[in-house]
Design goal:
By secondary structure, the protein is mostly helical. The chain is built from 3 helices and no strands. The model has no long low-confidence stretch (mean pLDDT about 90).
């Protein structure tokens, strides 16, 4: 949960998450990590 704490602190101190964008995973990376198949969702 350290990443979440860092994100919240960034938002509190700077009012934006822009500085974290390069560290964040894409939606595609997240779906792959959790084994989520977008195509099956629409069935």
């Amino acid at each position: 949960m350290k990443a979440m704490e860092d994100a919240l602190l960034e938002l509190k101190e700077k009012g934006t998450q822009k500085g974290l964008l390069k560290k964040m995973q894409t939606r595609e990376e997240l779906y792959k990590l959790i084994g989520y198949d977008v195509k099956r969702r629409h069935l």
